[in-house]
Amino acid sequence: MTDQAQLVHLLATRSARRGNFTLASGRQSTLYIDARLTTMTPDGQRLIGRLGLSTIRSAGWGAAAVGGLTLGADPIAYAICHASADDAAPLRAFTVRKEPKGHGTGKQVEGPVAAGDHVVVVEDVITTGGSASRAVEALRREGIVPVGILALVDRQEGGRETLEALGLPVHALATAEMIIPLIGSVS
Fold first, then answer.
1. Beta bridge mates, 14
2. How far apart are CA 114 and CA 135, in angstroms?
3. Which distant-in-sequence residues (6+ apart) come within 8 Å of 85 by Cβ?
4. Where are the domains of the chain?
């Protein structure tokens, strides 16, 4: 089984559920994907790190770092950072807070990134594109240059198009269309 097929299987069996849910976007859905049930596991981290790094390299984005809006993006960014450790050009990881810190330096972007750095914004699940859009805005305010968006899952509900309208290419490691047929399959 390929790394992508393994990841899709993990997402379908661990993270995806059918029912009636209110999503972070406020939308109602019969599909819920709690990506953290996959992204915060050793085998999920291994697969996400390898696939994410491979996708970033194949896209030719030339990024120095990966990260996104906390909390969903954090384990994905760390997995990719770790997977890149032995590369000639390893990627650093960063976190974008939902609001600037109210004390200390008052930073919204945390980690080893600075103005002028080219970065990939990562997202766990794209629905409307709102979380990744907020991360892009925060990064641009600090002079950091987003060059692409990497999603773990694209729900295929218009979020990709919203993000592409920001002038950024979007790649997803999995889609709802890939996951739905496998929901509830035996591990």
1. none
2. 15
3. none
4. 42-175
Strands 145-154, 16-22: pairing kind:
unpaired
Parallel, antiparallel or unpaired: strands 92-96 and 109-110: antiparallel
- 19-64 residue pLDDT tens: 999 988 888 999 999 999 999 999 999 999 999 999 999 999 999 9
CA 30 and chain centroid, separation: 22
pTM (predicted TM-score): 0.94
Which positions ≥6 away from 21 have C-beta within 8 Å? 28, 29, 30, 31, 32
Token match 């859009």: residue?
Answer: 133
Residue tagged 């384990």 (tokens): 75
CATH 3.40.640.10 for domain 42-175, yes or no, is no
Counting every residue, how long is the chain?
187
Helix, strand, coil tally for the chain in percent (to 5) = 35, 25, 35
Provide the 8-state DSSP code for 107. Answer: -
φ and ψ of 38, to 5 deg: -105, -45
CA distance 23 to 46: 27
